[in-house]
Amino acid sequence: MSIAIPTPSDAFTRLADFALRGQPETIPGSTMERAALLLLDTLGICAAAAPMQAGQIARDTTLALYGSSDPAMSAPMLFDGRAASLAGAAFAAATQLDNLDGHDGYNPTKGHIGVVVVPALSVLAQHLPRLTGREALAALVTGYEVAGRAGTALHSSVSDYHTSGAWNALGVVALAARLRGLSDDQLRHALGIAEFHGPRSQMMREIANPTMLHDGSGMGALVGLSSVIMAEKGFTGAPAITLEAPDVATHWADLGQLWQTELQYVKPYPICRWAHAPIDGAKLLRARHGIDHEKIARITIRSFAESIALYPGMPDHSARAQYALAFPVAWMLVEGHIGLDQISGEGLKDARVARLVALTEGVVEERHQARFPAQGRWADIEIEMQDGSVYASGDLNASGGPDAPFDAATICDKFMSFAAPVLGQARAQRLQDAVLSLTEDGTRFDAVNALITPAP
């Protein structure tokens, strides 16, 4: 890829106009409404992740390493309240979110955007008390639209598969540049800095050995906000070649025309998206045939190679449980539900689930592989009973994607199921009401921040 781009490209000019000068009124109402639901969904997962070990480590590490003596560069950490630097507070929330794999994603990028742009919005809004609800959503949309295109541009121009932090940092830059009023030149350098320092970490390494590293998004948030502050102070780094190189220009041509925000998927389970279609298949067959899990003799899952590469055995910690395949399918067959209780604590030791995991075989299926990643996450599942009966799901795409998106009521139900046990029913309900009202004239984002800053 050529990197000699001395003057701003047409793609950058288009991005700068979109990010810095675009008005909320130019964004379709359906996009703004979806952005509010994505915000609600992400905050629910962030709240649920607050008591988890990874989130606690992230927040404590932030206090130790990423503080600030400048009040103008500080903000309270989400669902914690203790102050850290802007970049540190965003890092803490994004790392916390990344370690409960129930947040939104975008099929073509094979990764996640809300995990970084929601923390960046909430952190920066601490210094914008008059930020309106509609302007907050417009900033959020800016982050989604830029990050998604940065992700597809990166994947098309390199040979290996990087984590989301490698490209979602650019979405943080675009959102922050809008909210902090950067100039075109500062924005260009911030994008270049973020692309250069974005964590190009190896996703399949994490799939093979799941840990708290997850999808690199904590570092993506840290790099994104750090890049903005560096550019404000005069640090240079332009251009970002995943934006300005001629061979990626097509990825940016529809900015402001095709609204990728509306194409994000919402997860029904806190499990890697690659396992969702088999889980949906297990749910379907359990309901359709009244399957008694004690009488199952064999389970066959057919999917794309990356899905079959997910952890095949009984996980011994939550990170591995979230990147497992047979394990969540088994839980769905045993209880018809997958939540926090299933992927942590005693849920990792259930003998009923262990029996089914041992009976499960994963098979790479070429027709599902051909659909990955652009067309979704496809699979089929077959269950053989001890009496010889065989039940087959047929081909299924993971639920909650753009081909069959969840409605507002479903997303609200999911939010309450994750947020209420941590925040309490009353606080969770107030938060839901505040977020959903952001599309209305006269609302302000500080009503949301007041509910997501204090510790549970």
Multimerization status: single chain
Distance between the termini: 48 Å
Question: Which range does the strand content fall in?
Answer: 5-15%
The number of distinct helices, counting runs of at least 4 residues, comes to 20
Order of helices and strands: HHHEEHHHHHHHHHEHHHHEHEEEHHH
Helix and strand content put the structural class at alpha+beta
Provide a quick synopsis of the model.
The chain is of the alpha+beta class and 456 residues long.
Topology:
Layout: H1 10-21, H2 29-49, H3 53-65, E1 74-76, E2 83-85, H4 86-98, H5 114-125, H6 133-157, H7 165-180, H8 184-197, H9 203-208, H10 217-232, H11 241-244, H12 276-289, E3 296-303, H13 305-308, H14 318-322, H15 326-335, H16 351-358, E4 360-364, H17 366-370, E5 378-385, E6 390-392, E7 396-397, H18 408-423, H19 425-436, H20 446-452
Parallel strand pairs: 3-4
Antiparallel strand pairs: 1-2, 3-5, 5-6, 5-7
What does this structure look like?
With 456 residues, the chain is α+β, with helices and mostly antiparallel strands. It is built from 20 helices and 7 strands. It has helices spanning 10-21, 29-49, 53-65, 86-98, 114-125, 133-157, 165-180, 184-197, 203-208, 217-232, 241-244, 276-289, 305-308, 318-322, 326-335, 351-358, 366-370, 408-423, 425-436, 446-452; strands spanning 74-76, 83-85, 296-303, 360-364, 378-385, 390-392, 396-397. The strands form 2 sheets. Strands 3, 4, 5, 6 and 7 form a 5-stranded mixed sheet that branches. A hairpin with a 4-residue loop joins β5 (378-385) and β6 (390-392). The model has no long low-confidence stretch (mean pLDDT 96).
